[in-house]
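Q: Mind making up any chain with structure tokens?
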Amino acid sequence: MRQVVSLSATPDMSEERALMRQGYALVAGVDEAGRGAWAGPVVAAAVILPRNAMRLAALRGVRDSKLLTPHQRHTLFDGIYQAARAVGVGMASHAEIDDLGIVPATRRAMQRAVERLNIAPQALVIDAVKLDVPLPQRVMFHADTLCRSVAAASIIAKVTRDRLMAELDTRYPGYGFAQHKGYGTRQHQQALAALGPSAIHRMTFRPMRSAAGRCRPGER
């Protein structure tokens, strides 16, 4: 039976500290952004937070990225980079998502994020997805709501991906990527109906399969 989690819950360090008490001093929280989008990559982040109480106090506002405003996310993004012991970011492209499937591609992005930490973690706390890495892992549903390091990772992943989608909007105009970030909004649905899929759409997702016949010449 899954744990019922209040969306107003404040993430703490209890899971990370439990691992630390077992002798794992360097615990990374891992999360992703963009798993449900129709276009662009899935982006993952891994964050090792400090143990120092004063440095952690600066991150009191850290929450699951979905519960924050864009301004709050961008402010905390900078604060996390300043306070964290290490931050790693990994991605899996739309092509990898089409080739592997969204869950394996998400796992690949997360593993890349862990590999890009400049301090090797000794254990992981992960939101929902178990990784094929030789490290102790605490895999939890709603970990981004419960665990501060995972919430921090959710913010890094979300802001990184949002900025990337804004850049891609200039390369693929007309779809509104800067606004909806590739998710299935009405604006995105209307753009697909008018333009067909772009070169960064995930063609194995059902809305793109149905729109593939309207793809513009030279797009794919």
